[in-house]
Design brief:
The chain is mostly helical. It is 83% helix and 0% strand. The chain has helices spanning 2-7, 9-41, 45-59, 63-74, 78-102, 106-114, 119-152, 162-170, 177-206, 209-214. Helix 6 (106-114) packs across helix 7 and helix 7 runs antiparallel to helix 9. The termini are far apart. Residues 16-199 form the ABC transmembrane type-1 domain. It is found in: Cell membrane; Membrane.
Amino acid sequence: MFQYIAERWDQIWFSSWQHFSLVVQCVVLATVIAVVLAALVYRVPGLRSAANEISTIGLTLPSFAVIGLLLVPLGFGVVPSVVTVTFFAALPILRNAVVGLNEIPPAVVESARGIGMSRFRTLVQVELPMAWPIILTGVRVSAQMVMGVAAVAAYALGPGLGSFIFSGLSRLGGANSLNSVVVGTVGVVLLALVLDLLLLGLGRLTTSRGIRVQH
């Protein structure tokens, strides 16, 4: 194992960076999309319920099947990987964003409106900061989940550590096949832990002390 890692260290490092970069960029994109959608639907009970149902149903879809379906219109490469990872990343964030915005006390919103703040300013300066801890929890769950989804995206020749896993599985019993699978799997777990620690630090930096105490 040590010899395998030493001989392929540059490739492992580069694939790890690609994997991490793919997940981070997709999670950022998914957060923007999910928060915008939540801001549009959370005031309407019917739309709010629909968003929650879509999140629940979407999470039951096998990521491997979604990637397979996207290969027809999008082909192989980075694009189907980005679409799949972003889709799955947005689901937990959307659900948490809807819950977080919906749980803000109406009196707080009314007070902001009463001092002359527009609905948009109230959303950006009052509601989103208060809902941010709950939204960030969804982001952390999402990031952990799509680390694995990004590995499956290697089926579509996407970037990342999934290539080690699929390469090893395709030649089980051959030389270094098990080493390849272990390197890919352990690498994904380590990246997930690193990203979660970074998000935990981001939460402390972006959440005011008063809101942290409440949560």
